[in-house]
Amino acid sequence: MKLLKDISDISSRHEMLSKLRSELTDVSRELNITKNILDRTENVKDFDLIIKKISDRVLLSSKITQVRERLVSLNREISVLKDKVSYYEKVNLVQDIVISIDKKLEVLNKLEGAKKEYSATCGSLNDGLAFMEKNKKEIQENLNLYIDILRKNGVCPLCKSSIGDEKLEDIIRHYEEVH
């Protein structure tokens, strides 16, 4: 019985060892497969690094593209703004010209008013001069008439003294000095 038991133990052990051997063979085969895979994928870490670099560059390229598009957009906006600024500078120039013209029109209106006043004054002055000339002629005519009357009468109407040519000349000279 002991022998049977020993045989049974050995047989069980043999089965277990056989099983273990089979498992060891499987593990060994798996190990070889894994080793082959590892050998073939030895550069995978480098690939990971390369893939990360490529990914980083793609991301950077995407960002650069976005920045470039934004730059192009900003350049367009700057161009539009420059056109607007140029337009407004022209508007400011036109406004300055309009203000200058307004000031000149104001001066022109004042000058026209002054010209009208001057013309009116000149007209009045000419009327006055004409009036003075007319009165001067009338006075001269009346003086000539008065002298003729004095000559005919030969006497002063106020003091009744006699008036000769010399006295008449004094009266005419005195009148001319006064007027």
UniProtKB/TrEMBL annotation:
SUPFAM superfamilies: Rad50 coiled-coil Zn hook (SSF75712). Coiled coil: none annotated. One of its GO terms (molecular function) is metal ion binding. The lineage of its organism: Bacteria, Bacillati, Bacillota, Clostridia, Eubacteriales. InterPro entries: Zn_hook_RAD50. Keywords: ATP-binding, Coiled coil, Metal-binding, Nucleotide-binding, Zinc. This is DNA double-strand break repair Rad50 ATPase. It comes from the Bacteria. It holds the Pfam family Rad50_zn_hook. Residues 142-177 form the Zinc-hook domain.
